[in-house]
Amino acid sequence: xxxxxxxxxxxxxxxxxxxxxxxxxxxxPVKQVSIPRFELCGAYLLFKxxxxxxxxxxxxxxxxxxxxxxxxxxxxxxxxPHKWKTFVANRTSEIIEVLPTKHWRHVPSKENxxxxxxxxxxxxxxxxxxxxxxxxxxxxxKTSSWPKAESIFDExxxxxxxxxxxxxxxxxxxxxxxxxxxDLFKNFSSITKKxxxxxxxxxxxxxxxxxASSQGSSISSSHINTTSHTFSETKTA
Length: 237
Known about the structure:
237 residues; two-stranded antiparallel sheet; 9 helices; 40% helix
């Protein structure tokens, strides 16, 4: 079961008062998922819960802090969503749009009220459960004493890297122009031979483009004349 809720902190006579505002539960997916993904689903549920009640608080000015006991989730939320696979990328992109990374904090599991329901508890004990109804001891501390937001999970860990998109491989090619006419001048001294070779080349190109019909192995006088004209223009240029 996933459970997340919102708690309201109020300062009165220099004292901090914390009380339950709203909560929501959801059964875990039938399809088996990894523990880090399951924890991300919890953060996503918290995001949707906060978004659903945000409009009721629109007339109030307040600071927002989102808590999770998963350092892996915070590591995902602190990076560009495009780094991650679809499951993680889709959820983290939605979450940080409403709750940016700077709003997320880490809470130890033993002080996380959401674990009371997600891990199971005796209903008889719930009415007297202070952690559930009022607060986690962490919230009674000054904000300066809260765990630092920068203390996130190592992105090089296997649990984080398993959701990274594999690096793309780029193949770079260079193109070098090849001057056939120049090579003909360079490698053959006979003008007649140059013209005949070039004529065969031109006929082959036309054949490949299906401009000309199928022909025999010999070249016609028209090919020679056309090629001679092309050869003369090239030589003049």
